[in-house]
Design a protein that fits this description.
6 strands, 3-stranded antiparallel beta sheet, globular, 12% strand, alpha/beta, Dipeptide-binding Protein, domain 3, 3-stranded parallel beta sheet
Length: 137
């Protein structure tokens, strides 16, 4: 798939092409609906978790996306983001992961394996790709 470079101008063009026009308040809209996704995050669960989410919010605003942050304590956050995608109550979620072992095998197995869905493990995006699973194994 390749790596996407940070390119706000390209992002603006893609949004324009998709019919999202810039409103007078600087937030894009389409068919009367503002582009204001809700991003869930924690503050203080891991170093920089909230600050990184604020940075993303600012980058989104630069292209006309008015992201709203919902800060949850870790005890509330974890079970509410460990649900199947169809049950999610957020548009985006800012996840951080503290690897106690420092090993890439641990991270790959916990976050990207098709066998790592919650509640047992941490593949909260429910990412599943047989080729990735083979590489992990």
């Amino acid at each position: 798939a390749g790596v996407y470079q940070y390119n706000p101008d390209k992002a603006k063009q893609l949004l324009d092409d998709a019919g999202w026009t810039l409103g007078s308040d600087g937030i894009r809209e389409k068919a009367g609906q503002k582009l204001t996704p809700n991003i869930w995050c924690t503050k203080g669960a891991t170093a920089g978790d909230y600050e990184i989410t604020e940075l993303v919010q600012g980058q989104l605003k630069n292209v006309g996306i008015g992201a709203q942050l919902t800060v949850l304590d870790n005890a509330t956050f974890n079970p509410r983001v460990s649900v199947p995608p169809q049950d999610a109550q957020y548009d985006m979620v800012s996840l951080s992961f503290n690897d106690p072992s420092g090993g890439v095998d641990y991270v790959a197995n916990m976050l990207y394996s098709s066998k790592a869905f919650p509640p047992r493990y941490y593949n909260r995006a429910y990412y599943s790709n047989p080729e990735v699973d083979k590489l992990i194994e």
